[in-house]
Amino acid sequence: MCDDKYLGRPEISRHFYEHPEHFLGFTERDEPNFCFRQPPCSFYSGTKALAEEAIQNKGQNYIWRLGVPFNEQNEPCNWLSQVQRSPWVHDMPTSLSHLEDCVRACLELWRRCAPFGIYNITNPRAVTTNQVVELIQRILKPNRKFKWWNGDKKPLADCTKVPRSSCILDASKLLNVGVRMRGVKDALEESLEKWQTASPRLRVLASPSEVE
3-state SS of 85-146? Predict the structure, then answer.
């Protein structure tokens, strides 16, 4: 799902700060709109949409839609790492999914024999990039200043080479079958408090025994 052209507007972010309850988000009934059928999109998002389309009516199955993934491990696919690395930051509300929380929720759906179908697996309540940066500054105290993109096309083009998606997902269906995920701010705070400057895999590869 994608709503970049709307969520990326400064006035939308301001309205989200004041009235987050006005942003209901995409439900499982909504079809992907950041895909090859509705370009432009990234190859990653396009293939995900095709895969969902291919299996949706093929017997009994679950389709799990997650938000932007994150946890406490510093690695390229972690959104918290991307925010800290990016030369420019674009403020917009979006849904996030803590990876371990996401896996637990998926397994719990299976254990509960929840009805098959599509589920948004995301930590409840969206968050803005600015709110995440404030948490990073308060907890990690990085030795850098964040540059905010103000709508000029050039800085955003300089820091991304592929189309990106942001959206707000409605997690009420997951809650209605009894599967609860903690709020996104709690998950973000814990991840930053446990932040690992290098991922376990990188530390193992860099250990003396491996080098020798």
Answer: HCCEECCCEECEEEHHHHHHHHHHHHHCCCCCEEEEECCCCCEEHHHHHHHHHHHCCCCCCC
Q: Per-residue pLDDT tens for 79-98? A: 999 999 988 888 889 999 99
Q: What are the residues whose beta carbons fall under 8 Å from the beta carbon of 120, sequence distance 6 or more?
A: 25, 26, 27, 28, 65, 66, 67, 95, 169, 170, 171, 173, 174
Domains of the chain: 4-194 (3.40.50.720)
Q: Which residues contact 188 (CB under 8 A, 6 or more apart)?
A: 70, 80, 96, 127, 132, 135
Task: Read off the pTM.
Answer: 0.83
**Which residue matches tokens 């707000």?**
168
Say if residue 207 is exposed, middle or buried (CB neighbours under 10 Å; 0-12, 13-18, 19+): exposed
pLDDT tens-place string over residues 22-42? 777 899 999 888 889 888 888
